[in-house]
Amino acid sequence: MTCDRPDGLTVDLGDGRWFNLRPSNTEPLLRLGAPTSWSRAYDPEHPAANLN
């Protein structure tokens, strides 16, 4: 596992998986980013539908 901090905190788990945690520039919150293999977009209005 490695960590990098040029744009927030990026954690590389060493097996092809990683995530990035950084503060928002416009809102008082943290943003979590991670790649996905899903072929469709996430729909925040219908979160249960995103599990199918």
Q: Can you tell me about this structure?
A:
There is one protein chain. This protein has 52 residues and is mainly β. Helix content is 0%, strand content 33%. It is built from no helices and four strands. It has strands at 2-4, 9-12, 18-23, 30-33. It has a four-stranded antiparallel sheet with strand order 1-2-3-4, with no helix packed on it. Strand 2 (9-12) and strand 3 form a beta hairpin. The radius of gyration is 14 Å and the shape is flat. The mean pLDDT is 78.
Low-pLDDT parts are none
Give the amount of beta strand, in percent: 25-35%
List SSEs in N-to-C order: EEEE
Describe the largest sheet: 4 strands, antiparallel
Secondary structure: helix percent: under 10%
Count of distinct strands:
4
**What is the strand arrangement across the widest sheet?**
1-2-3-4
Terminal CA distance: 31 Å
Oligomer: single chain
Shape: flat
Coarse structural class: mainly beta
* Gyration radius from CA atoms, angstroms: 14 Å
Mean pLDDT: 78
Q: What is the overall number of helices? A: 0
Please specify the SSE layout and strand pairing.
Layout: E1 2-4, E2 9-12, E3 18-23, E4 30-33
Antiparallel strand pairs: 1-2, 2-3, 3-4
Summarize this structure briefly:
With 52 residues, this protein is mostly beta strands.
Which labels suit this protein?
52 residues, mainly beta, 4-stranded antiparallel beta sheet, 0% helix
